[in-house]
Write a structure and sequence with these properties.
Elements (H helix, E strand, L loop, with lengths): L6 H39 L6 H7 L2 H4 L24 E2 L3 E2 L2 H9 L17 H12 L2
Antiparallel strand pairs: 1-2
Helix pairs in contact: 1-5, 2-5, 4-5
Length: 137
């Protein structure tokens, strides 16, 4: 059986194949980039980002912050927690380092008495998981 494509249809098929190939390449690059970011975040913080969404919910973070990838985390009180890894400063003017981020999450009032962020009771280990999540995005 021979299938003959008209030039117009052949062009559409080629276009669709090329578009699919490009999108697949982009998807692979995104996954690879995300995987690399995750590995770096884990190495930097000693945390496990997969545990963070439950921690965000348990401690009420999602009530104050908008957190990418966490369902229902659309709070408007605290800052939006996206692209944290690209920020120079976190919290109340702290240099953005993994240790500072963990310390800020555990006890923000140690750094700023006027912060709206409460001391939640989150442990250092849990804060490391949260930091890994934030640095991986």
């Amino acid at each position: 059986m021979t299938v003959t494509l008209l030039p117009f249809k052949a062009g559409l098929v080629v276009s669709a194949v090329l578009t699919t190939a490009v999108l697949t390449g982009v998807a692979v690059a995104i996954v690879k980039d995300r995987s690399q970011k995750s590995a770096v975040a884990t190495a930097m913080t000693g945390g496990d980002e997969t545990l963070a969404p439950a921690i965000f919910r348990r401690y009420g973070c999602s009530g104050c912050h908008t957190i990418p990838g966490v369902a229902g985390a659309d709070g408007k009180v605290g800052g939006e927690l996206n692209m944290v890894r690209e920020r120079v400063y976190i919290g109340d003017g702290l240099n953005n380092t993994p240790d500072n981020l963990v310390r800020w999450i555990v006890s923000p009032t140690d750094f700023s008495k006027r912060t709206a962020m409460p001391v939640t009771g989150i442990t250092e280990t849990e804060a490391r998981h949260v930091a890994a999540y934030l640095y991986a995005r």
